[in-house]
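Dear colleague,

Thank you for sharing your sequence with our group. We've completed the structure prediction you requested, and as agreed, I am returning the results in plain text so they can be pasted directly into your records. Please verify that the sequence below matches your submission; if there's any discrepancy, let me know and we will rerun it promptly.
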Amino acid sequence: MSTLAASLSPPVAAPRARPRAIAAWLYAVAALILLMVAVGGITRLTESGLSITEWKPVSGAIPPLNAADWQAEFAKYQATPEYREINAGMSLSDFKLIYFWEWAHRLLGRLIGLAFALPLLWFAVRRQIPAGYGPRLVALLALGGAQGAVGWWMVASGLVDRTDVSHYRLAAHLCLALFILGGLVWTARDLSALARDPAAGPSRLKPLPLIALCVLAVQIMFGAFTAGLNAGLVTHEWPLMNGRVVPQAMWSDALDDPFAIHFIHRWWAFAAFAAMMLLARAAKRAGDRRASLLIHIAVGIQILLGIATVMSGVRFEPALTHQIVGALLVAAAAAGAHAAGRRA
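Please find the predicted structure tokens below.
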């Protein structure tokens, strides 16, 4: 343990540091998180999230193995409000399908934890973590552990008095996942710069990129609210909403009203678009044309997918792709903000 602690603290010198290898590992973990976001989207769109009613971080990795186990899990689900009020009469075979997606989502979370923790331990023991990066990597690991707890906190909100999860907790779960994704991309880019130039310091988050990222974060939060309240279903029209520019909504309770949530998410998208354009310009001025191009592509496709999702009545394919491209936009925005704050 003393070796691990010493490795995770900024050493006086790190002659065996391997920033390029660590950056490649972080990009691989970021790719796994993108996959996790996709599976999470499938879980949400198939209404599978409440099919597993217990949180067993270790033993829960093993699915039911025989008929008796399946009947026991099904009986637990039948005691939930979602089953009684929405899915009463569901067959065991239908239950197995929704159970699979929730189980796959949780299993992937466990695999991501191992994919981060074990290489981190390896690099630390071998003293290959560059000076100053140990605490940041440990913080990312801690955030990953917190994400698992937030995921259960979200699921638990739908097991007693509700037929779905709290949209506030859903937003917390999604936003934390994308924050971790951005942190991984940012740290990987810092380490890549260090691999190219041993004198390179960490990039700084400048005011304009910070504002742009905050605008994007608001849009992501309202996107999660939209999913949690099924607010995408209140209309299939665009740009009008049921023949109106501004819908009839409970504006005094806007954060809980599906019409208000949908309206805000629909039009804040263009504030996010403008913020991303400014961020892309900042990245281009800093010399990173690739990050600038990725931001342009991702934000343009994302807005078109949002419109397609609404006009299709929230069909599975555009809705899922909308969530995946949203995560890719976060990664591109993190890269752009990093480029804009890179030190000479």
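Summary note from our side: The chain has eleven helices and no strands.

Kind regards,
the structure core
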